[in-house]
Amino acid sequence: MSPSQKKRLIVVALVLGGVALASFLAIMAMQTSFEYFKTPSEINSEGVEQNQTYRLAGLVRKGSLVRMDDGITQQFKITDCVADVVVQYTGLLPDLFREGQAIVSVGKFTNDSVLIASQVLAKHDENYVPNEAADAIMLQQASKCDNADGPVEY
After folding, report:
1. What does the alpha-carbon distance between residue 35 and residue 42 come to, in Å, rounded to a whole number?
2. Where in the cell is it found (predicted)?
3. CB atoms within 10 A of CB 117
4. SS3 137
5. CA 26, CA 97: separation in Å to the nearest integer?
6. How far apart are CA 119 and CA 48, in angstroms?
7. pTM, whole model, 2 decimals?
8. Quick check: helix, strand or coil at residue 125?
9. Which residue in 10, 14, 12 sits closest to 22, CA to CA?
10. Percent of the chain with pLDDT over 90
């Protein structure tokens, strides 16, 4: 190998090393901004990581909405007809939020497996279902949720 070929090889190795280092740093920086989309069943079976942001989709269980003593914090359960997750949200809920409505909550879990939501999304009329929620829980069976003995299949 001639001296000029060695120099080129060193330059190529340095460039590849720099690209690999930049890629590693970019991936590490993006990990803090990842949001995992989960259903209540997945949360209960797989568990959660602390300090990780989750998007939780499901139906607001009927009769589960409770206003806390401070008057602005609400607590309710999100269900996929198989499992429930308790969600706590401080602030004004969307106008279209109601029990039995498909919603998406964004937030982080506490040690007690309560999702402290920073955002609650509910959209449009009773026919609207977020794409993630529609895929996960099949809204056609939602009315059977309270009477279902097991998982709703589609």
Report:
1. 14
2. Cell membrane; Membrane
3. 24
4. helix
5. 37
6. 18
7. 0.65
8. coil
9. 14
10. 37
The token pair at 100 is 């039995």
C-alpha dihedral, 106 to 69 to 60 to 126, nearest 10°: -100
> Per the annotation, does 124 bind a ligand?
yes
**Residue of 59, 62, 108 lying closest to 88 (CA atoms):** 108
The angle at the Cα of 119, spanning 113 to 121, to the nearest 5 degrees, equals 110
Is residue 138 helix, strand or coil?
coil
**Residue type, position 17, single letter:** G
**Contacts of residue 151, Cβ cutoff 8 Å, sequence gap at least 6:** 41, 81, 82
66 or 130: which carries more pLDDT confidence? 66
pLDDT exceeds cutoff 50 at 94: yes
Tokens 């007690």 correspond to: 112
Say which residues have a Cβ less than 8 Å from residue 52's Cβ, sequence separation at least 6: 34, 36, 108, 109
**Tokens for 17?**
């090393």
In angstroms, how far is CA 44 from the centroid of its own chain? 13
Token couple for 95: 């106008």
Q: Return d(Cα 38, Cα 133) in angstroms, integer.
A: 9
